[in-house]
Write a structure and sequence with these properties.
Length: about 650
C-alpha cells in the first residue's frame, strides 16, 4: 500500500489476506472494517488479481452513488496506475447501471407514447419546468458519448427523463432495435464485459441475480460494499405497487393496439381501485377485505384480457415503431397483472408462519395517489439461492457485527446456518476509548410520542454550548429535527442548520466549512456525513432509532418471526436500531486526529434489557452516564480549536 502514497494499516493487511483466501477457497466472507481501514483497496487488490488469473471480471456492488464515484474516479485509477507495472496488463474497470439510467437513442427519436403521468397532478409551472428539462435532454442527446443520466448537471426530473429511457422489460433488444448498434446501455454492458472490475449498485445486482436474463457480465466473484444496505435494497427491487397511476399507464400504453371496449374494462377496473383506495385507511392489510379481493381480481382479469387481445408477443417485429409500442404495453400490463396476482396470493394461508408476503396501503400525497404495495417478509431465501448459490461473495461494511456477532445479518442474507461462510472484524485504526466518549443521558425521561421533552432541549443546548457549536444532531424523525431547530435557534449563539433548509449536500458543505455551525437532520445524515476535523466534535442522537411501530413491513416481519418461534423484537426492531445507531455513531471519528463525544439522550441505552445488545454493536468508546464528563471534555476541545 506504500506505493499508493499511504501507510500500512494492520486491519487493511488482514482484510487483504482474508479476501484472497475466501476467493481462492470459494468461501463467502463478511468483513467488518471500521472507518479509515482502507477497505476498498483491501478488496480491490485481490479482486484484480483474481480477474487477471481467471480472465473473469469481479463485480463490486455499492449502495450509494458517492462510493461508486470514489471507486471509479479515485481508487481504481490509482490502483491501475500502481499495479499496472507488475501485472500482465494495466487493470481495467467500468461502471454499469440499470438500463433506465441510459438514454435510449430510439425512444428519443421514435415518438413512443409519452411517459406523462396524469397532467392534472402538475401545475403549469411544473409542466413548463419539465418542458425545459426535456429540451435540455434533447440538446445533450446530440453530444453525449455515454448517454449516462448522471452526466446531466444539474439533474432532471424523473418525469422528464422517462421520456428518453426504457426499462429492461420495454427494450426491443439490440438485434431488433433500429438503434441497437448504437445503444448506450448495450455499449456500457459490452465495455463491462471486457474489463477486470465492474462497479454497479445493489439494485442492479439483485435484478441480475433474480431475473431471467443476465444484466451483468458472467462473473465468479462479487464484492458487496456497504453490505449493511443489501437487504433493504433487494427488498425495494422486489416490492410491487398498484395504484390508479399504474393502471392508467397500462391503459394509455395499450392505446389503440386493441379494441376500445377491452381497454375500457381495464380503465373501469382502475377507477374502481382508485375509489376504493381513496376511502381505505392506510397501513398493513392483514386480512383481505371482500371488496378489495373482488377489485384486485377485476384488475387482474382485465389486464389479462388486454394481454390476450394484444396477440403474440413477437408480432410486428419488422415494424420497430409498432414493436416498441407493443413491448411498452406488454410491460405495463404484465406489471399490473402480476402485482394483482401477488397481492391476492398473499392471503389464505393456514397460519401466520406460512405467510410469505405482506400487503399494505400507503397514504396518498398531493403528488401521488394512495398506493397498494406488496413485499416479501424475508429475502433470505432469494439471496441464498440466487446470489450466494452461484458465486463467491465478499460482504463488507463498517457495521456488520450487531450485538458483537455477524449472526443477525447473516440470517437476513440467508447464511444463518454458519456453513460455507466466515465473518471477521479487522478492527479500526482509531483508538476509540481515547478519541471518543459515549455519553448516555441516563437521568433524562424516556422519550415519548409527543415530541421532544423540555429536558431534552435543555440537554442539547448545554452540550452544544460546551462544544462551541460543532454538532451534528441526528434525530429519529424530521418533525423532531425541526422542532429542536426552532426551539434552539434563538437560544444558541452559533449557526444552526436544519435538513430541508437547502440541499443536503450544500448543508453538509456549509457545516464542514464553518466550525461553530451545527447541523440537525434525520435518516440520510445518519449514514451520509463525512466531516473530519474540528467542525464535528459532538454527535447528538435523540433516541434509539427503532422503526416506527406502525411501519407495515417491519411490523409484519416482527410478527412473522414471532409466529415461527423467534424473538420478533430482537430479530427485526433491535437489529434495525443497532445498525442505524452504529452508523450514526460512526459519524464522529473520520480522521486519525478526530476527537469528540457521542451523546445519546435516550436513557434506554443504559437501562433497557436490550441495551447490552445495542452497546455491543457500537465502537468501544469510553462510556459514561455522568453529564459533567462530556461537558468538560467538549469545553477542553473547544478551547484547543483555533477558532
Amino acid at each position: 500500500m506504500n506505493a499508493l502514497g499511504g501507510s500500512e494499516r494492520q486491519g487493511q493487511m488482514t482484510m487483504v489476506q482474508a479476501v484472497q483466501q475466501a476467493i481462492d477457497g470459494e468461501q463467502h466472507l463478511a468483513v467488518q472494517a471500521g472507518t479509515g481501514t482502507g477497505k476498498s483497496l483491501a478488496y480491490l487488490v485481490p479482486s484484480i488479481r483474481h480477474a487477471m488469473d481467471s480472465d473473469s471480471p469481479v463485480v463490486v456492488s455499492t449502495a450509494t452513488i458517492a462510493l461508486q464515484r470514489q471507486l471509479v474516479d479515485r481508487d481504481l485509477p490509482r490502483l491501475a496506475e500502481t499495479l499496472g507495472k507488475e501485472l500482465p496488463h494495466e487493470p481495467t474497470f467500468a461502471i454499469l447501471k440499470g438500463r433506465r439510467n441510459y438514454l435510449c437513442r430510439y425512444k428519443a427519436t421514435a415518438g413512443w407514447p409519452e411517459e406523462d403521468e396524469q397532467d392534472q397532478l402538475f401545475d403549469p409551472r411544473e409542466v413548463s419546468a419539465t418542458g425545459r428539462m426535456v429540451q435540455r435532454i434533447q440538446e445533450w442527446a446530440d453530444e453525449t458519448e455515454t448517454g449516462d443520466r448522471d452526466e446531466l448537471v444539474p439533474g432532471v426530473s424523473e418525469q422528464a427523463w422517462r421520456q428518453f429511457s426504457v426499462s429492461a422489460q420495454e427494450c426491443l433488444g439490440a438485434s431488433r432495435c433500429p438503434s441497437g448498434a448504437e445503444c448506450f446501455a448495450e455499449l456500457a454492458r459490452a465495455r463491462a464485459g471486457e474489463v477486470d472490475v465492474v462497479v454497479t449498485n445493489h439494485a442492479l445486482l439483485a435484478i441480475d441475480a433474480m431475473g431471467d436474463l443476465p444484466v451483468l457480465p458472467e462473473h465468479e466473484v462479487v464484492v458487496v460494499d456497504e453490505a449493511h444496505e443489501l437487504v433493504d435494497r433487494v427488498t425495494s427491487v422486489v416490492t410491487g405497487e398498484l395504484s390508479e397511476l399504474t393502471v392508467a399507464l397500462a391503459v394509455r400504453r395499450v392505446g389503440r393496439l386493441i379494441e376500445q371496449g377491452i381497454a375500457d374494462q381495464l380503465m373501469e377496473a382502475g377507477e374502481d381501485l382508485k375509489a376504493l383506495l381513496a376511502a381505505a385507511p392506510p397501513g398493513r392489510i392483514d386480512e383481505l377485505p371482500q371488496v378489495l379481493g373482488l377489485t384486485l381480481a377485476l384488475v387482474r382479469d382485465s389486464a389479462a384480457r388486454c394481454v390476450t387481445a394484444m396477440g403474440p408477443r413477437g408480432a410486428d417485429k419488422d415494424d420497430p415503431d409498432k414493436a416498441g409500442q407493443r413491448k411498452a404495453a406488454f410491460s405495463a400490463l404484465d406489471e399490473v397483472h402480476d402485482t394483482a396476482v401477488r397481492m391476492l396470493e398473499a392471503y389464505g394461508h393456514a397460519s401466520e408462519s406460512d405467510r410469505a408476503e405482506v400487503v399494505w396501503l400507503d397514504a396518498g400525497t398531493d403528488r401521488r395517489p394512495p398506493t397498494l404495495r406488496v413485499a416479501p417478509l424475508t429475502v433470505s431465501g432469494m439471496l441464498r439461492d440466487k446470489l450466494f448459490g452461484e458465486r463467491t461473495v465478499i460482504l463488507t461494511s463498517a457495521t456488520l457485527a450487531l450485538g458483537g456477532t455477524f449472526d443477525a445479518l447473516a440470517a437476513q442474507w440467508g447464511l444463518g446456518d454458519g456453513k460455507g461462510w466466515q465473518g471477521i472484524d479487522v478492527g479500526s485504526p482509531f483508538d476509540h476509548p481515547r478519541a471518543g466518549i459515549l455519553y448516555v443521558a441516563k437521568h433524562l425521561p424516556q422519550p415519548g410520542r409527543d415530541g421532544l421533552p423540555q429536558q431534552y432541549l435543555d440537554e442539547i443546548a448545554e452540550l452544544i454550548e460546551a462544544a462551541g457549536g460543532r454538532t451534528l444532531g441526528l434525530f429519529s424523525s424530521m418533525r423532531a429535527a425541526k422542532a429542536a431547530t426552532e426551539a434552539l435557534r434563538e437560544r444558541l449563539d452559533v449557526p444552526l442548520l436544519c435538513q430541508g433548509d437547502d440541499s443536503t449536500m450544500l448543508l453538509v458543505k456549509q457545516f464542514a466549512e464553518d466550525e461553530p455551525t451545527c447541523l440537525f437532520g434525520t435518516l440520510s445524515l445518519w449514514q451520509g456525513v463525512d466531516v473530519p476535523g474540528p467542525s464535528l466534535r459532538l454527535v447528538i442522537i435523540d433516541r434509539v432509532p427503532f422503526p416506527r411501530p406502525d411501519d407495515p413491513l417491519t411490523s409484519a416481519r416482527q410478527r412473522h418471526v414471532a409466529a415461527r418461534g423467534g424473538n420478533g423484537f430482537m430479530a427485526v426492531a433491535a437489529n434495525h436500531a443497532a445498525l442505524l445507531l452504529a452508523q450514526g455513531a460512526g459519524r464522529l471519528l473520520r480522521a486519525q486526529d478526530d476527537k469528540g463525544v457521542i451523546a445519546v439522550l435516550d436513557p434506554r441505552l443504559a437501562t433497557a434489557r436490550y441495551s447490552g445488545f445495542l452497546l455491543g454493536s457500537l465502537p468501544p468508546f469510553w462510556r459514561t452516564t455522568d453529564p459533567a464528563i462530556p461537558r468538560a471534555a467538549l469545553k477542553r476541545l473547544a478551547s484547543e480549536s483555533p477558532t
